[in-house]
Amino acid sequence: MSSPRTVLVTLAEISRLAGVGRAAVSNWRRRHPTFPTRVGGTDTSPQFSMTQVETWLRDNGKIRKSAEREWLWPRFDALGGRDETGAAIAEVGRRLAGDSGGGPQLDAETGALVEQAVELGRREGSWETFEFLLRRWLDVHVRQIATTPQPLAALMAELALSDVLDVHAGGDALTVLDPACGVGHLLSAAAEATDGAGSDGAEVRLLGGDRDPVLAALTDARLRLSGTDPSVDVRATDSLRDDPFADRPADVALCNPPFNEREWGYEELATDARWSHGLPPRTEPELAWVQHCLARLRPGGTAVLLLPPAVSARRAGRRIRRSLLRTGTLRAVVALPPGCAAPHSVSLHLWVLRAPVPGEETQGGGRLLLVDAASRFPRDASREALPDWTAIGSFVREAFGEARALDEGTPAALPFVREMPVIDLLGEEADLTPGRHIAPLPKDTAQRLAVSWKEFAELAEGVGKSARLLAALDLSAAAGDTPTATTVADLARAGALTLRGGQQPPDGTVREGLSPEEGISLLTFSDLLSGGEPRGRLTPEDLAAFEAVVAEAGDIVVVGVARNFAAWVHEGPPIALGPQLYSVRVQPEQLDVRFLAGSLRAPANVRQAGTHTTSSSRIDVRRLQVRQVPLEEQRRYGEAFGELAAFEQMVGRAAELGTTLVRDLGDELASGRLVGR
Predict the structure, then answer these.
(1) By mean pLDDT, which of 184-198, 272-286, 532-546, 634-648 is the weakest?
(2) How confident is the model at residue 409 (pLDDT cuts 50, 70, 90)?
(3) Which residues are paired to 254 by β-bridges?
(4) What is the DSSP string of 298-361?
(5) Which residues lie below 8 Å from residue 668, measured CB to CB, with a gap of 6+?
(6) Which of 296, 297, 233, 243 shows the shortest CA–CA distance to 265?
(7) Are 338 and 346 in contact, with CB atoms under 8 Å apart?
(8) Can you point out the beta strands (E) in 156-249?
(9) Is 164 helix (H, G, I), strand (E, B) or coil?
């Protein structure tokens, strides 16, 4: 009989289990000699026995009301590799969906853990428990498993289903196919989008295939638990080589196929009947998936595929692209902003295709809709910036809605959108990259330039006024005695200020799309790199659960990283702070907040409080120095610091706006749009 596996947890996992921040766990370890000793990992990344941790937390009254499923995940993670854990999670989903018969053979320990998860799911919610385990599994194996983000999956399903649902006959089954389904994001989005389609008696059938049996099992369990009650058939198969759904035509095909796979079956599939637009070259596996989806559609059916941008431009695929255009099969190409899905560094494309109907004339007079969302929403400077799905989705939907409403030959009114005659795209390269064919509309550019020039003029006036005030400051008279300096740590000990460091929120607590009434904004270091606007929010319950640090209006926010060191007085609604950000709250009867903020951000402070190892080194905020001067003197300096901060903000915005003006005006002049006088 094998001994039970030792379940190891990190400090971050202990914080989730206890419902506190990581700093609290570090304090427990430092202050309590009875805290469990390290049994694995390294000194910088220690691991502990979960059994010992649980005992210690209970004995010391440190366990809070955290979800019981938090205690399940480390045990699942300890089962073994990716496949063992994934198969166990799939089995949990299968049983929660009501399928108690059959299933894989599990060892005693795994079977007991699966049964424990099933019992928990019946108490706390089947869907919630399964999705929690699946999300944790995907987070651990994020580099091995490519997924389609939920907002993108929803957009793809909507584009595919919009026309199909309008003409779908009530008595016929509506069939949706994903031949490379992964963990089922696209089929789940289709199930949600078609949730009301069955109200007229139509059945919804979801067909999925994936060559990874673990992913196929997870998709099957996920769809059966979704609550939309469609007919589900998911197979573990290589859809290109051995398609189990060849005799089951679909109304809709959604696919995020594997990219750049050379061994896709070029030799054995060379004479396959699916290649009606030409045999895909060995280097064009994505075009094999495109034609596979088309071959499995009913006449008039729609396919939407997520593809790398090279598929729209590589010379090897130009013959197939021309055929797709000539037959009216390819209806639209959408260039998405970088960061929408893996690989996040490139602008992925959506191809929207429609299976021809025998005897039907080419719709739209042979035109292709091109949508350049990548130019409409240029990526922020930070690679970590998240896409604005609300804005992207609205823009793409508006582009497709306008294209349907336009008369033949009418130019699109939206900027970064164009309906282009197919004949203009059938050249030597047949390049379908939207950015190569779309320029901003002259009227749109003119309006944007007018607004930008007005703002620039206002900034120039403000910079000039502020510059005159700052230039008038008398700095020539040196003080006889230099006031002594103190540190933030000393001021905190004296009660003149309170210093608190931001924390990493527990997994799953940061949410997008919440309104200000539903949650408070979370500012992170990544947000500052991408322009300073918070992307996520925390609910009041989550804020209280892990004791988040919240900066109120009038507090000073300090960035504790050398290369982006900054300190400013926060204005506006309260905001939660993430790691490497600090909140400083002053006692106004002892310190002037603008004087303190200006003193903290002095370049000399960075040099003496940093670690000097790399540009990304942390700043020890407690070592930052401040001159000790009377409060009235602080206020006098505070006014100057405030004016200097305003000057910096205006100069920065003017530089940013000036760069945009130079680029846009240069494009207009190069296009010959200068009106003669």
Answers:
(1) 532-546
(2) very low
(3) 304
(4) EEEEEEEEEE-GGGGT-GGGHHHHHHHHHTT-EEEEEEPPTTSSSSTTS--EEEEEEPPPTTPP
(5) 442, 445, 449, 674
(6) 243
(7) yes
(8) 174-178, 204-210, 231-236
(9) helix
